[in-house]
Amino acid sequence: MSKEHTIAIVTGANRGIGFETCRQLALRGIQVIMTSRDEAKGQAAQQKLANEGLEVTYHQLDVTDSESIQRLANDIRQQYGRLDALINNAGVLIDQRGVLDTDLDTVRKTMEANVYGPWRLAQALVPLMKQGGHGRIVNLSSGMGQLSDMGSGSPAYRMSKTALNALTRMLAGSLRGSNILVNSMCPGWVRTDMGGAGAPRSVEQGAKTAVWLATLPDDGPTGGFFRDREPIPW
Ligand code: NAP
Prior knowledge:
Layout: E1 7-10, H1 16-27, E2 31-36, H2 39-51, E3 57-60, H3 66-79, E4 85-88, H4 104-132, E5 135-140, H5 155-175, E6 180-185, H6 203-214, E7 225-227, E8 230-231
Helix pairs in contact: 1-6, 3-4, 4-5
NADP nicotinamide-adenine-dinucleotide phosphate (NAP) binds near residues 18, 90, 92, 194 and 195.
């Protein structure tokens, strides 16, 4: 399939790694559907790319809102009839306390955005990928979700990323043989609102592995966890 006909959705794309992922995908000639929960912020981000000569489509999407997800799925079905890549980038880090005194509402809110969002999106959008016989799902996870290196700060965020990795494995397993490849990645510690100004990596570096996983060839990996295009432990 030529890149010109590849359609990719990026969630939480109005800023940070999601915005940069849209930019890098658009530079490759991929048709990008940039999404954000806040329409004004998303449209401002779309305009920013337009000012650089990059045309992307915009659609509202709050990953915690089933109706918003359904509207997106319906519009994509009507307009394109298929979807090639879903980059689950939207995420929150709202932990203020440690594992022994955290408020479980914080855990629930974090799970809604970081895990149930990507889960609902897979349920809504995989049928469109199957229709086109081609799909790539990229889950923006984190080293903070690695069981092999589990710390104790930001417990809701950590657990959500471990759970997102489990979702990656389950989706990859159930979609094996369908040409829909599902992978998790860690972008590294990146200078964004979430990562802070002191992070060592640029958004350009952070988005690279997402773009690679979103454009994998048919014989590419599935059910893996990557940083800088290299497998890392769960
Ligand atoms: P960021 O600058 O905080 O941006 C997060 C994006 O997610 C924003 O666009 C935000 O929208 C959006 N978002 C949050 N909740 C949403 C919802 N319910 N529906 C739709 N969009 C929603 O974060 P980032 O650093 O670019 O991180 C992107 C991804 O990489 C996240 O999944 C994060 O966990 C992961 N990651 C980041 C780092 C790092 O060092 N930065 C490291 C490891 C992993 P609003 O503007 O409306 O809030």
